[in-house]
Write the structure tokens for this entry.
Amino acid sequence: MPPRGTGRGRGRGRGRGKAPAAPAPPSRSPTPSEVESVISSSDDEQEETSSAPEFSPAARSVITGSETPTPSAPSTPTPSGPTSLAGLRRALTGGVRKKNRPLRPVAYLRHVAWCMHCFRTFLENWDTSGPPVIPCWDDGLSSKRCRQCASRNKNCEPVNEGILGDAMRLQCILDWAKPFWDNEDDNEVFDLDNAVFGDLVQAVQALLAGFNVLLDGHRKQFGIASDKKPAKDIAKSYEAVVHNRRGLLQPIPVTVGMSSLRRLVAEASTYPGARLSDDGYHAWAFAVRTFRSAVVEIVASQEKYDNLSNPQYDQLEADVVKDFPVEDYLV
Ligand SMILES: [Zn+2]
Ligand SMILES: [Zn+2]
């Protein structure tokens, strides 16, 4: 009895929105919910016309209060006046340097390669009526920055390679949990009451927070800053760490007929991951196990499972554990 089946249906009375289509592996065609027309969005045009950190309507829903950029104030020309053509242009345009950022015809959701800026924005501002999807959009034709980072004039903050496998496993868990938000008309109804739904939301948030602890601990331990290039010696020693972790990988083979989620699980197994001795490892491992336990409780709380005997509960738990996309982390 996989929770994918048991988790389908509607949460009556909560007014939750429609869930996006099926989980998206990195190499398959994007679903409509993961592709956004850029051409039709005048907000994007506004956002991309300047490299100054202007407030972007397109990014408004994902910008946190503490990080809201303030519009740049017009600069005052020096008393002696501009002495170059560029200076004259700056004086005439109020100091805002115009720079076009060519956009893709469509924007793609960075499904498994989200940047940590968008991750944290999501952690703080998730609209829980929708499924847990980290809103990191790739819309630049040649720019490496995601939409939000471009609008804030920041560089993206990728997950460090030494724990990239864990980031992908986190994505696998989020994809696996999406059906709990499935609001499509369906014969199967998974009716979570508000309290149980609140537990699910908390479990997801704790999971994300656990990954954040792992990332911070990993960076501190190996002396790598968030978005700055590390010193040569630090970069070299970190590369050795990553190299060592690559040697420990035990990739899961991809087989014909595997679901997209299982292919993503297999893909994750080809990337380096956290080690037991990593700072933050235990917080992350605990968060994963706690999330899985919470799901067992949530599934068992369905009316049809009322009055489960102990052996039946054990079987239900075993089924959920078997279907869970991430293997046990040692704790
Ligand atoms: Zn992003
Ligand atoms: Zn970014």
Summary: The beta strands are 35-37, 103-109, 137-140. Residues 3-26+158-323 form one domain. The longest strand covers residues 103-109.
